[in-house]
Amino acid sequence: MSTCEICGTQIMDHGENIYVEGNLIKVCKSCSIRGKPSKTQPDIQRKPAMRPRKIEKLDRITFDDSSIIINNFSEVIRNSRMAKGLSHEQLGLLIKERASLLRKIESGSLKPDEVLSRKLERFFRINLYTEVDSSDSE
Ligand SMILES: [Zn+2]
């Protein structure tokens, strides 16, 4: 014969198994009403762990949103190209981009995408991106 692990009375029938703070204990009928039934325990542990990660990946389709392209990117690119004495065509050949695209970027009518920006950054050893904190609104 066993005793209830909560109130200590002797369990006359088969008793109840419940979880209390993660431990499975044997208790009498009247105490089992207050505890959590043992069935619910696995569900409590499973649900919160799985969800958040998937959502986070979907939000990250665009590249790092904590950095934005600088306002005077066109000026910086133009100055860097001039400093090297390159024409749009020559630069285009070197970084495998069209000269017409480079002209648009230098005139400020087009923002370079991430791939092109990184190419220009590497080629000229310049920074086209700047870190911003979330409160910044230009
Ligand atoms: Zn009891």
Can you walk me through this structure?
With 138 residues, the protein is α+β, with helices and mostly antiparallel strands. A hairpin with a 2-residue loop joins strand 1 and strand 2. About 7% of the residues have low confidence. It contains six helices and five strands. The protein has a three-stranded antiparallel beta sheet with strand order 2-1-3. A two-stranded antiparallel sheet has the order 4-5. Helices cover 45% and strands 13% of the residues. The chain is rod-shaped. The chain has two domains: 46 residues, no CATH class; 65 residues, 434 Repressor (Amino-terminal Domain), CATH 1.10.260. Bound molecules: zinc ion. The site of zinc ion has 8 residues, from helix 1.
